[in-house]
Amino acid sequence: MLLLVPARLPEVSWVQGILANESEHPTLIGGEQGEALGQRSSGDDTLIAPDAESVPRTGGARRAKILARGHSIGRYVVIDRLGAGGMGVVYTAYDPELDRKVAVKLLQTGHGGSSRGTTGATRLQREAQAMGALSHPNVITVHDVGTFDDEVFVAMEFVDGWTLGGWLEAKTRSLAAILEVFQAAGQGLAAAHAAGLIHRDFKPDNVMVGRDGRVRVMDFGLARRMDASPDREAKVAAQLEPSPPNLDLTTTGAVLGTPAYMSPEQHLSKPTDARSDQFSYCVALYEAVYGERPFRGENFAALAFAVYRGQIADAPSGSKVPGWLRSVLLRGLATMPEARFTNMDELLAQLGRDRRNVARRWALVGAGALILAAVTWGTLASRTQASVCTGGQAQLEQVWNDARRSELERAFASTDKPYAAHTWATVSPIIHAYGQAWIEAHQDACEATRVRAEQSDELLDLRMMCLRERLQGLRGIVDAYASVGPDALEGLDAAVELASDLAPISECSDIERLSAPIKPPSDPQAREAVALLREQLAGVRTLAARGAYAQGVEQASAALSRARELDYAPATAEALVWLGRLQHLAGDHASAEQSLLEGADQAAIGRHDRVAARAWIELVEVVGAKQARPREGTLLAKVAAAANHRGDDDGQTADLAVALAAVYKVEARFDAAQTELEQALQLRQAKLGSDHVEVADTLLALGEILREQGHYEQATARFEAARTILETTLGSQHPEVARVYNSMGNAAIRAGRLDEAIGYHEAALAIREASLGPEHPDVAASLNNLGAAHEGLGQLTESLANHQRALAIRSVALGETHPNVAMSLNNIGNVYRTMGQLDDALSHYERALAIKIEALGPEHPSVGETLGNISNVHVSRKQWEPALEFALRTQTIFEASLGPEHPNVGSGLVNLSSIHAHLLEWDAALATAERGLAIFLAILDPNHPLVASARMNLGIAQLHLGNAAQAASELEQARAVTVGSGSKQGLAQTDRSLGVAY
C-alpha cells in the first residue's frame, strides 16, 4: 500500500503559498524588467526609477495618465516627467503660488470610479496627509495632497541629487560615508515610526541624497498607520490590483513591498510594524557595504523562501566589513521580528556607538594620560556591569562539580570491568569541557543584553531557555553515570555515546537558529511548562542512549500526555518524535510509524522544521527498512530531504543517508546503499572528527554492505578501521569492540574463510565474557555465530555444543518463552537436520514454533520461517504433501505480514515451485516460479543467485510442459549466473536440464 504523505510539511505549504502569490503577477515587459536577485540595483540622477514610454497595465488597474508639459495638476504646472513606478508617475512641476519647483506624484488607485478605486484613493489620500503632518530633515517634505481626475496626487519637495542606489553606484564610497548616509536615512525612518507611520517599502531607490548632502526618505506610498487594524489592512490590500513581481519594483496587493527588500512577514502577507522597516533597512545597508544582497534566489519564490528561512549569504571573500557591523546587520535581519532591535533608535545607536568608539580610539592616540584614565574607568565600569552575569558557575555546580566528579570516578572503578578506567578517562574531559562551554555561553548571553546592550530581552530569553535545556541534558547524563555499579552497567557501556551525544552548546548562540519561526508561548506560565517538558524529554534522550527502551517509551508517553495538555504544537511534535524513536528502538515499528507521522504533522503546524525533518528521517527506516516497504521508504526519503532544507547543521543529512541505505539493503540494492553510506561517512568525519563513535558505526554499516556484495577484503578493511576507532575511544575490551569482531567473523563466514571466522567470533566471545559476564545474552549471540561457523566446516558436534550453550544462557537470562530462545531452538533444529536426525530437528522446530506463536502472534514473519523449516524436514523425508501444506502456510504469513513483493515472498514461491515439481504439478510449478522471478527481478540484481534459482525452476517447469525453447532461454540465463557463483552442484543440475532442453 502506497503511503499517503500529509501535505502539511512546512516547505510544501510555504512554496505553494509563494507560487500562488507569484501566479498573480505576470512578468513585466520592456524597460521595467527586474534584475537577477542578489545583485545591487542601479540608480540614476532622477528622483525615482528609470523612465518608460508608458506605464503598463497590471491586471485590471487603471492606466496612469501621461501628461504633457504645461498640463495642470491642481495648481501645479507640469514641467517634465521624471519617471514611473508600480505606484504611479512622477513629474517635476512649478508651484506658482510659492514660486518653487516641486515633484508631483500621481498615484494609481485601481479601477477608475469603482468602489475599489474609491477605497484605494481614500486610503492613499489619508495616509499622504498623515505624511504631510510629519516634519523632519531626513523625510521628504510633503507640501500638498489632493485629487486630480479621480486620482490622488502628492506634491512634495523637489530634491536635486541622486537616489541612494545611484549615489552608491556613482563611485566607491568609504564605510564611514555609507554609515553616515544610512544613519541619516535611519533617522528619517525613526521619525516616521515615532509619528505612527510604517514605510513598508524602504529601499535605496526610495532614499534621496541631495547635492546639499542632506538625506531624505521618500515614497511612503505603501505606508500605513501603526494603529491601523491588520484585518482592515488585509481587506484594503485585497481590493488593490496587484502589479508585476519585478524584483526591484514595488509590488502592491496581498503582498506589499519590493520583494528583494521585504521582510518575512511581508512575504507571508502577515501584519507588519516598525520592525519590518528595520529589516528592509538592514537589507539595504547590507547591500551597500557588501556589494550584494543578503538573500539570494533566481525568482520570486526562491527569494521569498530564502528570506523566510533566514538563509543569509556568507560574507564575500576578502570582505573588510567589521565583525561588529555584521553582527548588527544579522540581528536586524532576524526572521522573527521579536529577535530584531526593539526599534530603529536602538539599531542606530548600535551603528553609531561602534563608529564613535573607532573614532574615539584614534582621537586618543598620543594622549597617554587620557587613555589610561579612559581605560581604567571603562574597565571598572565593565567589571561592575559584568558582575550581574556570573550566575552560570553556580548553576553548573548543582550538576557537575569536583565532588560529583570524584563520586563518578569511584562508581566506574567499582565495576571491575577491564574498560571502566579507559571509559572514565575518555568521558571526564568531555563533560568538563562541556560544562566550561556552558558557563561561557551563559555569561555571553547575559552580557549581550545586560552589559553590551546589543541583544533584546526576547532573544536573551530564547538563549537562556536553550541553555537550560542543555544543562538538563547534562544532568541526565551525570545521573546515568551515578547509577553505574557492579550490578548496573548500562551507564558504563553507554558512557561515551552519552557524552558524545550531548546537544551542542553553540546552538544556544546561533541567533539565526533561535530566531526560526517557532515562537515560544506568550504566557510566562506556559513558557515555563514547555521548559519543564523539554527537561523531561532530555531524560528520554538519555534513556535512549542507555538502551533502556521500555522505560524510555513509558517516559516519552508521559511527556506526550503533558504536551497535549499544553496545546503547543512544537512541544507536542518533539514528544511524538521521541516516542516514535523509542518505539522504533524497542521494535514496535507499527506504533512508531503512527507516532512519527503525527509528529511530522504537528511539527509542520508549529513550523518546527528540524523536528519535522527528524520525523521523516526516522520514518524512512521504520517504514522502508524495518517494515520492509522499500518503495514507501524511498518516497519518504524524498520528503525527508525536502524537510531537511537547513542542510547538515544537526548531522541529519548523514542520518538520512544511513536510513536510506537501510532501505536499499532491503531491496538488495547494495551499490546504492554503499553510495549513501559513503556520503554519510564523509559528512560525519567532517562534522564529528575521524575518531567519533558515529564514524565507527558508519564504517560498520558500510562494511556490512560491502560484505553483502561479496567484497570481503574491502568489508574487512572497514571493520578494521571501525575497530581502531572504538579501541582508541572506548578501550580494547569494550563490548562495542566485540561487535566489530562479530561483523568481521560474519564476513569471513560469507567469504568461506571459516577458520578465520571462528577466530574473530572467539575474540568477540572472550571480550563479552570478560566485560559482560558468561551468562549475558550477547555471549549467547557470539556462541550462536560460532555454531554457524562450525556448522559450515562440518564440525557439527562443536556447532551443536555452541548452540546448546546459547540456548541455556537465553533460557535463563531472557526466559523460556523469549523469541531469542526460539531462535536457538531453530538453529539446533537446523544442525540436527544436517546431521540427518530429523526427529530431533522436528521436535526443536515445533518447540520454537510454539514460543514464536505465543510471543509474536501466529501471523509474525518469524513464525513463517519456522513453518518453512518444518516443511524442509518433510522435503528431506520426501513427504511432499505435508511439505506443501507447511510451505503454503509459510507463504500466506509472508504475504500478509511482509507484503506481496518482499524478498522472502519470492523465496517462498521458489520453494513452492520445487515442491509442486516433485508432485508433478507443472502448471503450479510454472506459476509460482514465474511470480517468484518477477519479485526478484523487481528488487534484485539480475545476476543475483536467487534470480538464478527462480530461472532454474521456471526452465524445468517449461521443459516438462513442452516449451523447450523457453526452457532453454531461462536455463541459459540461470547457467550464466551459476558459473559466476562457482556452485558446482548448481551448474551440474543446470547443465543436465539444458541437455534435455536441447
UniProtKB/TrEMBL annotation:
Binding site for ATP: 105
Alphabetical UniProt keywords: ATP-binding, Nucleotide-binding, Repeat, TPR repeat
Start and stop residues of the TPR repeats: 696-729, 738-771, 822-855
SUPFAM superfamilies hit by this protein: Protein kinase-like (PK-like) (SSF56112), TPR-like (SSF48452)
GO MF assignments: ATP binding; protein kinase activity
Sequence ranges assigned to domain Protein kinase in this UniProt record: 76-351
Name the record gives this protein: High-affnity carbon uptake protein Hat/HatR
Species of origin: Enhygromyxa salina
Taxon lineage: Bacteria, Pseudomonadati, Myxococcota, Polyangia, Nannocystales
